[in-house]
Specification:
It contains 7 helices and 12 strands. By secondary structure, it is of the alpha/beta class. The strands form 3 sheets. The protein has an 8-stranded mixed beta sheet, with helices on both faces. Strands 2-3 form a two-stranded antiparallel ribbon. A two-stranded antiparallel ribbon has the order 9-10. Bound molecules: S-adenosylmethionine.
Amino acid sequence: MMTCESSEKTWTPTAIQERIRQLGQWFHNMDLRGVRTAPNHFLGDYPAFKWRNFENAIPSDLHERSVLDIGCNAGFYSIEMKKRGADRVVGIDFDEVYLEQARFAAEVNELDIEFRELSVYDVGALGEKFDVVIFMGVLYHLRHPLLALDLIREHVVKDLIVFQSMQRGSDRIFETAADYPFEEKEIFNDQDFPCAYFIEKKYSKDPTNWWIPNRSCAEAMLRSAGFKIVGHPEDEVYICKADPEYRESGAVYPAGREMNS
Ligand SMILES: C[S@@+](CC[C@H](N)C(=O)[O-])C[C@H]1O[C@@H](n2cnc3c(N)ncnc32)[C@H](O)[C@@H]1O
């Protein structure tokens, strides 16, 4: 476990520029005291432009609250949460290269954030529930997306989860019936029916894109994992609460149960 402490070192623009270069390819195009981490990013000012679309949907004051940022990458959202006063922010990612970037970005911002190398499938090992969980841009990178949502619900969500997934296909919602007879086949030709596209090869040159849901599927998966959708501030972003009436219905990989018992 590593913690980013405020650094005594004065980071000049030249020193920041050099350290950014040493830390490899950046996916988060952040502004570190006027120096851009990924000035040629294919999405431009990402994730800041996305953040502006839903920042008002999250409490502006996070004092006395804890935050877990799953798949934190270079820590853009962890940093925004800490700036809102969160007592404790933990960012996890399974890629140490991104975590090093995150530690540096937090250091330059003089923010105390804990970054840990951990897969979403191992969130049980944290042994702790968080007031706010951020799960942005990770679902479609997973071979087992519903398992990840089940684990997150069971092990780390105390109250609020901010979820985002790339979506493709229909963007209309579909009210499914409680059940369908075995003979019903036509329903599966409806583009709006909950559906996730399986990417066997690559999408957008990225071999780690596995399952891309349409809108009704993304929403159905959230409900199925025990989340109540309370906000939809942006096309791909959902604000959810742990549904108190949820009764666990599926098998949940028991990561952490032994470790924490
Ligand atoms: C598209 S980026 C999204 C980054 C950030 N959350 C955002 O919304 O800008 C996906 C991130 O998820 C991380 N990731 C992918 N699979 C993961 C896993 N199984 N456990 C933890 N992190 C994972 C990647 O390393 C990467 O940093």
